[in-house]
Amino acid sequence: MARKRAENIQEVPIAVSAFTAEDIRDGGIERPSDFVALIPNVTLVDTANVGDTQLSIRGIVSTRDAESTFAYVVDGVLITNPNAFNGELIDVAQIEVLKGPQGALYGRNAVAGAIIVNTKQPGEEFEGIAQAGVGNNDTYKASAYLSGPLTNNVSASLTAHYSTTDGHYDNVFTGEDDAVDYLEEFGGRARVIWEVSDRTTLDFRAGTRQVDGGAINFNAVFGIPGFVAFLGSPTYFADVNEHEMRYAFNVPGENEQETREFSVKADWDLDRISVTAIAAYNDLDENLLSVGSSASFYPYELTPECQSDRVVLNSFTRPDLFGDPLAPFLVLPPPSAGGEDFAGIYGPYGPTRCDGYQYQERNQEDLSLELRVTSSEDQSIRWIAGAYYLDIEREVVSAYGADQGAPYAHTPYIPPSEPNPTDSLFWDIYDTQVLAAYGQVEFDLGETMEMAFALRYDEEDRSVSNAVPNVLSSGLNLNLAGQPINPAFMQFPQGIPDRSRTFSEWQPKITWRWSPLDSVNVYASWGRGFRSGGFNSIGSESLINFWYNQGFGGPGELVGAGLTISDEYQKEVTDSFEIGIKSMLFDNRLRLNAAIFQNDVDDNQFFEFFAGPYGLLRVVTTIDEAQVRGFEADFDWQISDGFRVYGGLGLLDSEIKENINRPLSVGNDLPQAPEQSFNLGSQINFPISERWEFMARVDWQYIGEMWFHTMQGEATPTIWQVFFGPGITQDLSRAQRDSVSTINARVELSNENWRFTLWSRNLGDEEYLQEVIPSPEFGGSFIHPSALRSYGLDVTYSF
């Protein structure tokens, strides 16, 4: 279905990685991260909260806090919920990953590609699957699928799943082993297909998902060479890969999500054409709570809570929490206990109430409508035409406040008269309306050639309003005392104005395919992808100017970073060229595909993270011009009836061509575009009796070294110049993630009804980083580890 038709994937002139229901079962594919590991030039990062996934396809990344770069389509419906992608994959029949711009057919923001998921379609016979599993780290899971006819022309399916795990990491402050990367998830989905007549079919889908998990589980690593001699410790210029992770926080990292979805798809068969109409609704409510990260700037140094904590929670009484003094942190007792104020180096995410807390919300409600007309498949000229409408209402909250040890209210703003008052607040309401029209025409050039022309036009009307109350901070934060709770009020003291803008783009695509042999297809394509621009939280530009830039009368006069961050960011446009070959050899036992490509990107959207005396700030910037060139190949060889070997390789050469915001980064690699990625696997199946079959499978994945920021060793000023004078610059040359090599394995016994599966992910217990978030002006990086070895037993019964 790569082109919304039933076609042989080997004949589709698009780079496609496909997984059948059998592939999904044998590979133990339960989440997108599982099949991503089997695709060259595709990587996934999943860290801050459940669903906070950054998917990189050929070096084009789905930027945090911006729109996605790929279309995610389930049962023909484009999913707009930003957290829906990395959920449990239950009752899935097929997965297709399409690379390169796919906007002409698959919709909004398909700059880098599209991921097409089709679930099992309920049929005329009753069938069901029940699965239960147990694993290390107190991991338990259960799921059930039931499908069958309700009447002569109505069939339905019902799916439910539950999973829970304590995770791999412990909180050394509280002693809890289920308070860091824990996860509990419950979900259900119903699908009803009504054959109204021989020509009309209605497909209804409804689902819900609830998640309770850990959030914002980061440590910090400094990258400031000037501090090494000054403070006498090499840990101030450290390799992020050599850091020993330590979680010691007093504010529980929490991520709560609730998702609801409903869609209806109608298909009409009108002889020479078919008509499809889709209506879909999604609703997401999400909040995050975590400890703050700015204690080293002494925001709450003189509060009674901070003074009290430092009596017993300091580097001399609790080295288990902070490590050795000045390696790199130094938490001193208060003067009442023989210590000093304003002299320690606390570090972020600590156990004291000196660093405050952060609270976030990401809520979204959206409604989409689509109408598509498709010609029949047996015509020499085949075409598709359609129109699409989408309305999104999104609420984004980022708050920072005083931690007084009281229960935490899950609300954006807390006044000074109540516990844990808010000192810094970004609270924005976004409204987006999208109108699009698209079409594609395919026609044959003789018996061995095909041409296709596609075109899509998107227009997005975006607006944002500010919901922050026009009040001052609580006064408890010494760095923000007397300032407005949002820095934009310094520019607009009578009220922050609303903003609006329209982003639009034509997205053409041309494709050529030639079949010189029945088993060989050669293709070439050029296409354009578009990702809408948008707005950062109101006040972002004012805050950056005040704290980091000269000419605005604040501490930035001593920093002079010269940043050009704005409250809005531009649209992203990608031109992609590709030449590929697909072949079936040795009596169709060997599938061998390869492609070379080039992506030229204008205004590549990039996530930036700032930490300082004010707390935290998340913004989206753009890299003016970037280029990615690459090669990839994959194979699947059925050597014998019971033995299969498969794998792939991906090579990327990326370069930042122009970057006005950070000009020193020109010539560097693009973030999250590793130069190499490989995977290799094998599977063996053979009968051990008349009823039972044995299966064993091993999958190996390698990802080369990866940068996560545009700055990769170039010296720039840090906020520490405000405190220690000029010359305190950062060096992020040691913030590159090392190459990663992991192995997954599965062993299974099965018969017609039962399957018993022993499995392990990261069998070698490889310790590696999942993500590095450099913050140049802070002078370091925030790092998140990956999952360690997991193993368990699954039992499945099907009928």
TrEMBL record:
<comment type="similarity">
    <text>Belongs to the TonB-dependent receptor family.</text>
</comment>
<dbReference type="GO" id="GO:0006826">
    <property type="term" value="P:iron ion transport"/>
</dbReference>
<keyword id="KW-0406">Ion transport</keyword>
<keyword id="KW-0813">Transport</keyword>
<dbReference type="Pfam" id="PF00593">
    <property type="entry name" value="TonB_dep_Rec_b-barrel"/>
</dbReference>
<keyword id="KW-1134">Transmembrane beta strand</keyword>
<keyword id="KW-0675">Receptor</keyword>
<keyword id="KW-0798">TonB box</keyword>
<keyword id="KW-0998">Cell outer membrane</keyword>
<dbReference type="InterPro" id="IPR039426">
    <property type="entry name" value="TonB-dep_rcpt-like"/>
</dbReference>
<feature type="domain" description="TonB-dependent receptor-like beta-barrel">
    <location>
        <begin position="254"/>
        <end position="763"/>
    </location>
</feature>
<dbReference type="InterPro" id="IPR012910">
    <property type="entry name" value="Plug_dom"/>
</dbReference>
<feature type="domain" description="TonB-dependent receptor plug">
    <location>
        <begin position="9"/>
        <end position="114"/>
    </location>
</feature>
<keyword id="KW-0408">Iron</keyword>
<dbReference type="InterPro" id="IPR036942">
    <property type="entry name" value="Beta-barrel_TonB_sf"/>
</dbReference>
<dbReference type="InterPro" id="IPR000531">
    <property type="entry name" value="Beta-barrel_TonB"/>
</dbReference>
<protein>
    <submittedName>
        <fullName>TonB-dependent receptor</fullName>
    </submittedName>
</protein>
<dbReference type="Pfam" id="PF07715">
    <property type="entry name" value="Plug"/>
</dbReference>
<keyword id="KW-0812">Transmembrane</keyword>
<keyword id="KW-0472">Membrane</keyword>
<dbReference type="GO" id="GO:0009279">
    <property type="term" value="C:cell outer membrane"/>
</dbReference>
<keyword id="KW-0410">Iron transport</keyword>
